[in-house]
């Protein structure tokens, strides 16, 4: 990691024509990706809204920017309001437009969630997310033409109803977002579904022969696509009724969560999840 920009962003090229903008001082260490074409750029997600992501994008490229929101969770949509062309799956549109108030976000800036200082001048007490009405709704199979580079939209529900991944077939590369990464896969929200997640992971697993690399939104990047097999196998076991390795209790944000461990990946499932027996 190099010197932090704005005291918050780590910016580096991770593949030809793809720049990751990571937020390493928060426990989520969320990553947004700027994909550069000849005529347009696509920004996959807009981060936590703590630093000014638009400023970083403008420093990298003068191309028109299309924002592709992989889903509408708080750590991915923070700076959507700063951009004009913002696209998301229909099932995430209302959440994107609604934003998040300071009360619902306060716990995410607890000192236990921070691994470094917040940027100078940032007030965590007033941290909130402005809503953004999407300009376009994305569907499975849509193709985003950037000029000499095309991203195919893959609808991969499970983590959330409208979770998306983005496939650059020519580059043999998948931006796997929150669908697949080497950390704790979240299937713990009321709108998560392990059965849908399994279908999505099996779909991506079939693509392994066509992929050289995956770029996820959390954990290390890039990663080998072969990890998809382990993730899919683990999700299959959960769907089949596998007992968890841990059952979290207490009052923290993991209370009521079952934890299943599979090598470098864990899967967290909410016990109140209506899609889990």
Describe this protein with a few key phrases.
277 residues; alpha/beta; Metallo-beta-lactamase, Chain A; seven-stranded mixed β-sheet; five-stranded mixed β-sheet; 5 helices
Describe the structure.
- The protein has 277 residues and is an alpha/beta fold.
- It folds into two domains: 1-155, 4-Layer Sandwich (Metallo-beta-lactamase, Chain A); 181-212 and 224-277, no CATH class.
- The protein is built from five helices and 16 strands.
- It has helices spanning 53-60, 93-98, 102-105, 194-206, 227-239, and strands spanning 10-15, 18-22, 31-36, 41-44, 65-68, 85-89, 136-138, 143-145, 150-155, 164-168, 173-177, 184-187, 213-216, 246-247, 257-262, 265-270.
- It has a seven-stranded mixed beta sheet, covered by helices on one side. A five-stranded mixed beta sheet has the order 8-9-10-11-13, with no helix packed on it. Strands 12-16-15-14 form a four-stranded mixed beta sheet, with helices on one face.
- A hairpin with an 8-residue loop joins β2 and β3.
- The chain starts with 9 loop residues before the first strand and ends in a 7-residue tail after the last strand.
Summarize the topology.
Blueprint: E1 10-15, E2 18-22, E3 31-36, E4 41-44, H1 53-60, E5 65-68, E6 85-89, H2 93-98, H3 102-105, E7 136-138, E8 143-145, E9 150-155, E10 164-168, E11 173-177, E12 184-187, H4 194-206, E13 213-216, H5 227-239, E14 246-247, E15 257-262, E16 265-270
Parallel strand pairs: 4-5, 5-6, 6-7, 11-13, 12-16
Antiparallel strand pairs: 1-2, 2-3, 3-4, 8-9, 9-10, 10-11, 14-15, 15-16
Helix pairs in contact: 4-5
């Amino acid at each position: 990691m190099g010197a932090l920009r704005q005291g918050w962003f780590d910016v580096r090229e991770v593949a030809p024509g793809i720049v990751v903008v990571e937020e390493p001082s928060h426990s989520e260490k969320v990553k947004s990706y700027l994909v550069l074409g000849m005529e347009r750029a696509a920004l996959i997600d807009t981060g936590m809204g703590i630093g000014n992501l638009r400023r970083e994008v403008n420093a990298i490229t003068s191309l028109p920017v299309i924002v592709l929101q992989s889903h509408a969770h708080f750590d991915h949509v923070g700076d959507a309001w700063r951009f004009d062309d913002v696209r998301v799956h229909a099932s995430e549109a209302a959440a994107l437009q609604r934003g998040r108030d300071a009360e619902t976000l306060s716990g995410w800036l607890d000192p236990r969630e921070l691994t470094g200082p917040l940027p100078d001048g940032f007030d965590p007490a007033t941290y909130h997310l402005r809503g953004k009405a999407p300009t376009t709704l994305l569907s499975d199979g849509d193709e985003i033409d950037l000029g000499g580079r095309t991203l195919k939209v893959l609808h991969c529900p499970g983590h959330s109803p409208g979770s998306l991944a983005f496939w650059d077939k020519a580059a043999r590369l998948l931006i796997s977002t929150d669908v697949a990464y080497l950390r704790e896969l979240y299937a713990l929200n009321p709108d998560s579904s392990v059965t849908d997640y399994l279908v999505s992971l099996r779909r991506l697993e079939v693509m392994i022969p066509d992929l050289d690399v995956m770029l996820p939104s959390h954990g290390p990047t890039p990663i080998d696509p072969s990890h998809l097999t382990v993730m899919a196998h683990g999700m299959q076991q959960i769907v089949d009724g596998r007992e968890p390795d841990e059952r979290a209790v207490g009052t923290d944000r993991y209370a009521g969560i079952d934890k299943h461990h599979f090598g470098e990946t864990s899967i967290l499932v909410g016990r109140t999840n209506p899609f889990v027996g």
